Amino acid sequence: MVAEIWVYLLKIRYNSKQKDIFLKSLITDITSFRNDIQVKEYIYDSKPENKSIFNLYVGDVKNAKYIIVSYYDTLSVSFGDYMPFNIHHNQRQTLLRIFAESIVAMLIGIFAVFLLKDKLIFLIQIGLLF
Question: 123 CB contacts (<8 Å, ≥6 apart)?
Answer without folding.
Answer: 129
